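Annex B. Sample input.
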Amino acid sequence: MKQRGRHRRKRRGQALRATLAGTALALTAAATLISTSQATGGDDPGALTPLTSSAETGKLQLHENLVSGKTLDTLTANMGGNVGVHGVLQSANHPMRDRDQCAGTETGALPVEPEASRAYCWDSGDATTQKWLPQSVTTSGDADDDGKWGEDRVILAGWTHNDHKAGELPEDTGLARIAFIDANDPDDLKYRWVLLVAPLSGGADFGAVRSHLGGMVWYQDKLIVTAKNGAEHDNALFVFDMRRILRASVDSSAIGKVSGGYSAKGYQYVLPAIGSYNLTGGACTASHDDAVPCFASVSLDRTSTPDSLVANEWFSSGGTQPARLWRYHYSTASDRTGLLGTGAGGLVDADEAYETKAVGVQGALSHRADGASTPDWYLGQAPGSRGTHGTLWRQNTSGAAAARCTADQSHACWGQHTESLSYWTETGELWTLTEWAANKDNAWEPTAIPERVLYAVPLSSVNGSLD
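Annex B, continued. Sample output.
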């Protein structure tokens, strides 16, 4: 029976790959996670360098691939219809801890300058797990400029499974889940997990999406997330429809259709992918900036015209390799809400691109101040060792600036190992979160409560702290 089970899983995996290859949603067995090495946060990266040649911008071109509406409707109907964001929040079962309830190691990960205006820590089991890493954040402030999705204020936090073991590749590695956080009461945040999946067999089944989730943007009714980093992976971004949150009917360790209904490995809710964007230049290369880039993170810029998705690549904090920053405008067509603007043949061209000498950039945000002719870029530069603060640079085509907060005038004032950035326009807050970082040998160092915290800082405070 055990041998037969392996054959079933093998056939199921072959069907999954074959189906998603047809829509450029090919999934992989594992996620290559961003690591950090030896950043000090002390080197001024100077001004951004615009990239204007077609040879450079052509490497950033995407192709849009959408799953058929019939497939999505079939899966939605089979699983009982859309639960909705509000429905997920109503069943939130994980409380977040306010700053005064966080452990010292958690609050120690907060920025030194400027100080966080709000900070929250995860439920105990999620705060200490080695198997999942918090990677990205977006909010209902991205989704709608009034800051709400319907009647709710919502924060989404993306986590990636990271159960690497010597000599084996666990089936769970690379799974992606999102914490739907009910933020209606700032003194009582709570969340529910939703597993990311992709439709199979014309909507009769679904399989797991394996994504790094280094960055994500919830814009209008769509959620765009980064796909797996690595040269063997062609997909750059996955797309999900926030109107298609579905409920699993069977509680088991399986993912997909099972006897009696649908199972999501114990999760009550799933969010099926509706499409992807792949780089037309082929698989990305994460080793240098002369090839097709790997997406490390994404965020939203509401100050561009039209609104745009901005992206960055990542290179080791211990190196000197410059990294690229670029943007794609969103579509303004009424029947393409939340999707990127496409040209002939579903192609998406980058509208603007720069090169930065800041190294170890884990998250990037573009924001144009009132009256400014060009945007400022806020870059979260990761520290090189665990327990060390990073740097938040404000960089533009004129130069760079960051806070100084220590006796030696170090720029290492930002949070410890912060990930993606998100700006909540309505409140003026910059949101980010920290992960539990590996040591220099990429080995885990268990502690009672690791350095994981979700926090916000007013963007005005960031600008006011700059040297």
